[in-house]
Every structure is written in C-alpha cells, then in structure tokens.
Design a protein that fits this description.
By secondary structure, the protein is α/β, with parallel strands linked by helices. 28% of the residues lie in helices and 28% in strands. It has three helices and six strands, in the order αβααβββββ. The relative contact order is 0.16.
Length: 178
C-alpha cells in the first residue's frame, strides 16, 4: 500500500512541478485587436483629409511626397493595444524575412496582408509584429508564407529596412496556415 501511495504522490509532485507553459493555451486574435479603437478613428479622419487634399494633385507633385511622409510618420508612431501584452496569443499572417538567407533561425516580420512591406508600403507599426522563432523545432519559412504563430506578445518598437514594428512575439510554435 505504501508503494502505491508513494507512486501516486510522486506523480502528483511531477504534475505540480511542471512549468505552466506546458499547459498554456493560446487565444486566437485578429489583427484589428492590436489597434486602439480611438487611434483608428482619428487616423481614418486624418487620412480622409489627406486624400481630399491630394485629389487634385498629380503623382509627380512634390506635395504628394510630403503628404505620404506625414502619413508614414503617423503610422510609424502608431500606439499599441495593451490588451494582449504578456499573454499567450495565436495569430495568422504573412512572413517578411529580414535577412538575405531567410533561414528558420532568424527573426522575421509578420504582417496582416499579402505584399505588405515588400510590394506595398509598410502598414502602421501596430500592424507589424517582430517574430522570434522558437530555438528548436521551428518552421522553415519563406517570404510571404502564410503561417500561424503561437507565443507571448510584448511591446517592442523595432526599426527594420522593411518597416517599423510595435510588437514582438516570442514564438512557441509556428505552423502553416491552412
């Protein structure tokens, strides 16, 4: 009887000593949840004003460049939503590599739509996530792969050649988007 009790207590001790990350669940979130609603409303109003100003201008007009620069600065300073900071999340997006080798051990940007940062200007900083892949068992990713990333979200302003991110995601798991 003592042997069974000792075995049961040992098993219970093992379960209690197990780090909480083994049992962690990741809440699936959507990109719009990373944007503070008031900032989105204000930005929409400002963008409408900028668009109206540019309506009568040609693409070659130097004022277009000035308006774009103003918009770019506003987007690069985009505030974050603190709702998921420090929490386990799951989000899908597209890969934007930050290095020429594009290896699985390197950090990359995750963006909400195909072509962002590569074929189009970068989205606002609160719509770009710097992803740090897991140390082992990572998924080999290529430019514009659609993937799911599970991990802990943090605030981290990072400037790259491809855009400015406002978030960082320490990836625990990466899987292809299906």
């Amino acid at each position: 009887m003592k042997k069974h009790l000792l075995t049961a207590l040992s098993f219970l001790a093992l379960i209690l000593l197990m780090p909480p990350s083994h049992a962690q669940t990741y809440k699936e979130i959507f990109w719009d949840e990373l944007i503070p609603p008031e900032w989105a409303r204000q930005t929409a109003k400002e963008f409408a004003k900028l668009y109206k100003k540019s309506d009568s201008m040609q693409d070659s007009d130097l004022r277009i460049d000035a308006l774009y620069e103003k918009l770019r600065k506003h987007w690069d300073a985009a505030p974050i939503s603190k709702k998921y900071i420090g929490k386990p999340i799951r989000i899908s997006g597209y890969v934007v590599p930050l290095d020429a080798e594009r290896s699985l051990s390197r950090e990359f940007l995750l963006v909400p739509y195909f072509g962002a940062c590569i074929h189009t200007p970068p989205p606002p900083a609160n719509q770009i996530i710097l992803v740090v892949p897991p140390a082992t068992g990572g998924l080999k990713v290529r430019s514009m792969d659609a993937i799911w990333v599970d991990g802990i979200l943090s605030e981290s302003r990072t400037d790259t050649d491809m855009g400015r991110s406002a978030y960082k995601l320490e990836a625990a798991k990466m899987t292809p988007f299906k």
